[in-house]
UniProtKB/TrEMBL annotation:
PROSITE patterns the record matches: INTRADIOL_DIOXYGENAS
Name of this chain's protein: catechol 1,2-dioxygenase
Keyword Repeat found: no
Family: Belongs to the intradiol ring-cleavage dioxygenase family.
Length: 324
């Protein structure tokens, strides 16, 4: 079949009806966006001569993605998360908000409400005796190099098998998730375990999509951060550990040159003792620079449904966003 009907008045009128243009109710922006989205998809069906079999298998795949709550997993794989970052970077550049540690994607696996600590926290629950001990530390500074005391540093990462607590029911609550407030010198310190890389579940709908593109669903070992302080721009970022097979081949497109950190293996017993550790450990240092801003909306993370996020928080964040 090689019919082309997209540009006919019948189809164009039909699209307007489907998008509710002739209805008084509903939301104007929703109508505009749906009209554009459907137009692009109808045109695609025409241009690629999409068969009914192909169309219905796509519907089935979307159902499977939703059933397994995997849209949040597929989203970074299709580059949407990184694209939103690129847009945010461009908006910062246009507003001359320069400097500071680069942002990169949040990913779908943050959980709100992790235990809070001042200056130091142990993040692992000690249940993984074979895991390599990680000493994670850094200083939070403003763009002039002044340390920021009391900055809020939220850190989360996966275990040595690639699982995140909460999403992996075998782990204890908030394992490898902590909120640490920096000390008087702007420093945070954590004892944890070196995370492994992460892979999307084998055979899952996300994996099927990536395989159809000839791609893999692997991420390098990485550690997520939210960093915030009054008067400064909220930072969502992560570090990728150097030397991982996927450091420069991350399916989620989160790697940025400034965010690749080399862990340093330390075998000196005196160094371990100084940190209250025993035996060999790996030190990972990540200093963070926050840009200044007086705009309240830029000082908090953007609203998004997140596990255990207070619904009232989301409501008030959305209300704040709507006012800008
Ligand atoms: C995904 C998983 C992550 O741990 C992450 O940081 C980003 C994306 C994912 O499964 O899509
Ligand atoms: Fe992650």
């Amino acid at each position: 079949m090689t019919v082309k009907i997209f540009d006919t008045p019948d189809v164009q009128d039909f699209l307007k009806t489907v998008a509710g243009f002739d209805q008084a109710g509903g939301d104007e922006r929703a109508k505009q966006i749906m009209h554009r989205l459907l137009s692009d998809l109808y045109k695609l069906i025409d241009d690629f001569d999409v068969t009914p079999e192909e169309y219905w298998s796509a519907v089935s795949l979307l159902n499977a993605l939703g059933h397994e709550t995997q849209f949040g997993l597929l989203s970074p794989g299709l580059g949407f998360d990184h694209y939103l970052d690129m847009r945010q970077d461009a908006a910062d550049a246009e507003a001359r908000r320069t400097g500071g540690t680069p942002r990169t994607i949040e990913g779908p696996l943050y959980v709100a409400g992790a235990p809070e600590a001042e200056g130091f926290a142990r993040m692992d629950d000690g249940s993984d005796p074979d895991a390599e001990v990680m000493w994670l530390t850094g200083q939070v500074r403003d763009v002039d190099g002044t340390p920021i005391a009391g900055a809020k540093v939220e850190v989360w990462h996966c275990d040595s098998k690639g699982g995140y607590s909460f999403f992996d029911p075998t782990q204890s609550e908030y394992n490898l998730r902590r909120t640490i407030f920096t000390n008087g010198e702007g420093r945070y310190r954590a004892r944890s375990i070196i995370p492994s890389g992460y892979g999307v579940p084998e055979g899952a709908p996300t994996d099927q999509v990536l395989k159809a593109l000839g791609r893999h669903g692997e991420r390098p070992a990485h550690i997520h951060y939210f960093v915030s302080a009054p008067g400064h721009q909220h930072l969502t970022t992560q570090i990728n550990l150097a030397g991982d097979k996927y450091t420069w081949d991350d399916f989620a497109f989160a790697t940025r040159e400034e965010l690749v950190v080399e862990g340093k293996r330390i075998e000196d017993a005196a160094e371990a003792d100084r940190r209250g550790l025993e035996g060999v450990f790996t030190e990972v240092v990540f200093d963070v620079e926050l840009a200044k801003t007086e705009v309240a909306e830029l000082q908090t993370r953007h609203a998004r449904p997140r596990a255990k996020e207070d619904v009232e928080d989301i409501g008030s964040q959305l209300a704040a966003t709507a006012k800008v």
